[in-house]
Task: structure prediction
Amino acid sequence: MTVKILVTGGAGFIGSNLTEHLLREGHRVRVLDNLSRRGTRANLEFLRTLDGDFEMMEGDIRDSETCIRAMAGVELVYHLAAQVAVTTSVVRPVEDFEINLLGTVNILEAARKQSPKPMVVFTSTNKVYGKMDHIGICLRNNRWEYDALTTGNPETTHLDFYSPYGCSKGGADQYVRDYSRIYDLDTCIFRMSCIYGPRQMGCEDQGWVAFFLIQAALGRDITIYGDGRQIRDVLYVSDLVRALVSAWKFREITRGRIYNIGGGPRRTVSLLEFIEFIRNDLKLPLPYVFDDWRPGDQKVYVSDISRAGRDLKWEPETSPEQGFRKLYGWIQDHRNLFE
Result:
């Protein structure tokens, strides 16, 4: 069945991959994006080459009237537009607040005023859990790991916003949750771990997997903040897209619910392990130096994805090694974007 869908931030990394999938599935897709991030105009050019019912609306979620116009007639909203870097939020906290929290409330209000109301799927972040200092961790096999959370961090872990980014995304996360309870708006929240894949313009502040590969491809060095033994669960973007689609498919179950989304315990990698993969598998030198830990850095973050597995009938399919090679191939094919 064809659905009319709004994707905010639809010209970004995740948004363009999601929009591509939705168009190929035959849905009608409207993208709302202010095209401010590097790479978005190239992504938009790509989307315009695809067959399908595609509408581009250039605008900013910080403007409530823009959000109302973008919402007209849609049945489903994927709200991806965001300020995405912790370090940027520390430097520009007001801008971070306006984009992530005010922008999300604008989207929620626009959805609430529609009749019928569309479902809103919101991409949140693992940063809502903060540094997780209360969770025991240990050094095991030269990597930081949870002492006891063998299946990863569950959605029941208490929230502890840390950094302006954590506060703005965490506040938005809770607004999305409460609009479901107070206004009977169908919502679903994905608290995402490390997502990577094609069309990701990784930089030092955000998107570290792509950033490491870009730097390696261009013969540049990197800085590791911390000791390099910190680990993350990594998820290839096409696996995330399948989960996002399933949130709508199983909306009778997912409405009002929160899911931790990432690669889970079977798809974890430390920074040093990833550098070894680049050097040994891709045969690329990647010089690096160490610097101090940054505010809000987590030594360990691994998602417990069991709830998502049950409700979404979903599990990741792409191994880290497969995904890393695919992303590197895309970077090689699009070197002009980075040079």
In short: The radius of gyration is 19 Å. The first helix runs from residue 13 to 24.
